[in-house]
């Protein structure tokens, strides 16, 4: 520590010395003047030693210099933050401040908006000064725009252009250099001098800035050039809660310059205008047109005469008030003519209605008439189309051709009425309630058998249309449900089964018609009136939906292992899935080659099926495998087809081999016999068990064996 | 190496009710077992001590697979759910559900990025452990009946089904090989060289099938397996074939000759449902419906 060394002691020491003083003594402050530099000591004006050398603490500190600790500015020793991370402190300026400083700082504190908000608040409250606009344009941070920063982060330097590097000759060498700035359009934002009298940021090319444009009424409708086509516009100060019907990618906080040529509160007007009636004044001199156009329009104008404007006053004399949405306005304003809808001809018979009417007794004539009316009306195609889609689907090509053929038949000029007796025509008129039927000519059918056949066909076709359709799978499941309704009525049950079979496709559709009594004369037992027949069929349709086995969600949970015949891309056509347990094995699966082969332990090509399988891309990625080109395998038929071909060729061999092994293995005689039968029956190939041609051929079988059995040659050699 | 024929005096007993699966971890230091009591228990087979038990399943645990680094394992069971576990924390990290009925078999692929699960609903679902998706990557629907066993070997997914087929889905070739065994398959296991498959079927026969052409190389008989899922396995670098049996014994065959070399009694008369061979040492574990886990040593 520094000690005070009074001047008197120095003087007394010097006086004590026995020497003569000549001249003025050298001042004490300059005592170091003659000592070498490295011996000199730095002292303050009060003679205290303040500097202790770099290695002993630098400038002296400690209590004497009011640092606050006896150590003074002791350098803190290095501590690894790895082991004592929690002890690590981050010092703030406040940690080194005393009370006075802190109080001063507190006094200076003000509540202000954060930087990102301050520009908005400033720009929205006060009119934008030139610098603010510049800030907005340039990025607002006083520096460069965001694009500049991004580019710079990507390695771009000011002065360079943008684009792919070009090879340039630099000092005789070819180097890749970025393009120069003047080569590309990259030259930053040009701040051109403003000479016109438009507002700042005004661009005449932007339609959204024009006063006619309807915006949300917020002052500020400038949008980016790319978004001109958008209907909705947003401006500064638009919150998230504001509705954005169309803009899901629109940024409500997007900062946009302000348009000054705006009217506040235009949104209100817009709100009124949409949906509500818009006042349009139409001169009364025009009403002739209105009354001429349509009566409805005239009534509307009559009503609108009494209507008042939105301010409660009557419209000006000579004008009427029209709502913009009404039909009259459009016609009135555009001056277009209105046409009444075409009137339905009185002779038109809606054929569909007749058939739909449950009270109608369906007779052959009626159906024929229905057919006729359908064809005679010009809208026959339309009515056919409007008839239900199920009918449309049910029409086969032959049925359609029949319909078309009958149409041609009709073109010859004959109708049903030509062959009707007057009595029949009378009854028909009573039934239909239509007295305007063509006169009955009671002609004799020329070639009776042919015409009868024709009309019968027509009847059949019409009746077939009446049969309610059932889903094919539904029909088959109802058939196989095990439980059959109508246990008490055997005939009805047989009809039900017939219906189901016809719908499932195992029986012809016309078989169902056999139960229908066609006309009124036929009273054969076991037949129903058409009415009853139809009702019964509808009942069957419902019953089939009701009496079905486990279906839907519950049914889907069970996988039938025995009869699931939907093997995908199977090599063998008649391939069924196998459950080699229980009765199924005994029933029908034994005659399958692969099952037999597996039974005998002949595992190999006979029991193997190869098919293409497409693993998903993600799966291949997870497994680290390239995605196999499955389609190529399938198209070129590489393995699958060749396997099929090989199998075909093997068919012969395998049968033979099975025969041999069956003999060796002492399998039941029946299997052997069946195999032999199959050999003979399939393709009529006669194969002598003793002399096998396929095996006699030396070359081909060898290849086959190699191809199919691979290294299991010893098997073939054994034979 | 000699075959472990001696069982411990005290078997590992913690499970209540049948034990369905036992598995070594990749080093063979620990054993995981899952049982009817919905628990998965981590054992130290050398000290016969229980290390940890993992409880999350709502129904029986039917299969367990351990990842390549033994840091996690996956389990499945009667609750139609597949759980991915963190071994050390003992908590489930992922849960996959989507199967319509109980999940019989589960396995990881090589880097544990995909979990394959086979279920009673005859489907194999492949789950992605890397994404947070709850939907499987792919669904394999070729099987006509319950998937009883499943293994992912390299780029192949091998499934054994009750419909009597062993199906090998080859990702690299984009092909599916279906080999008809003819009897419901209860267990498929790939050999170390990945050339053969060990296939257990319900005709009390274990077959060694050649993967390349589907021929049978060897068959192993002598044990009883008519009704239950009894797992078989290779042992000691494919020198032995071991399998449980429904007569309470563990059978060991010599792979080349196909002869029974050992019949080990350890589970009374109950079904021995699963066996596993230590990856390095002559040690073997077996579990059964008697609720015991036997550790077999050679000393």
TrEMBL record, chain A:
Compositionally biased, Low complexity: which spans?
378-396
- The name this protein goes by in its record: G-patch domain-containing protein
Which PANTHER family does this chain map to? G PATCH DOMAIN-CONTAINING PROTEIN 1
| G-patch domain: residues covered | 143-205
Query: A biological process (GO) annotation for this entry?
Result: mRNA processing
Which species is the source of this protein?
A: Lipomyces tetrasporus
Positions the record marks as coiled coil are none
**This protein's GO CC annotations:** nucleus
GO molecular function annotation = RNA binding
Automatic annotation (TrEMBL), chain B:
- Segments annotated as WD repeats: 12-53, 54-95, 96-137, 233-263, 272-299
Q: Which domain of life is it from?
A: Eukaryota
Q: Which GO biological process entries does UniProt record here?
A: mRNA splicing, via spliceosome
Name the species this protein comes from.
Lipomyces tetrasporus
Q: Describe the family membership recorded for this protein in Swiss-Prot or TrEMBL.
A: Belongs to the WD repeat MORG1 family.
Origin organism lineage: Eukaryota, Fungi, Dikarya, Ascomycota, Saccharomycotina
Recorded protein name is WD40-repeat-containing domain protein
Q: Which UniProt keywords apply?
A: Cytoplasm, Repeat, WD repeat
Subcellular location, in the record's words? Cytoplasm
Coiled-coil residue windows? none
Q: Which InterPro entries match?
A: WD40/YVTN_repeat-like_dom_sf, WD40_PAC1, WD40_repeat_CS, WD40_repeat_dom_sf, WD40_rpt, WD_repeat_MORG1
- Identify the GO cellular component terms for this protein: catalytic step 2 spliceosome; cytoplasm
**What Pfam families is this protein classified in?**
WD40
Where is the major localization of this protein?
cytoplasm
